[in-house]
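Attaching the record inline, Q. Sequence:
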Amino acid sequence: MEGYISSNNFNRYTVVKIHRAIQFAIGQSDWLSRKQLLEGLAFAGIPISYPQLYKDVELLKSCNISGFNHFKGDRGFDRSSS
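Structure, as predicted:
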């Protein structure tokens, strides 16, 4: 799966929209609970359900992405993982 996730795999507009939504949702926070992250993304126009977040977290963990630090039992996300 190495090299699978890259800027070539996604529409540039989609990547920019997600990045802006995450920055908007995070604000000045260094840590967000799952609920805060989901509410922030919904407010930014990217609504995600908790089951989808769980699936996305599992996928991201399997990709070994630098900066993604989420472990079983975590109740939220730090800035880099968000």
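The helical segments are 12-26, 34-43, 50-62. The longest strand covers residues 31-33.

More tomorrow.
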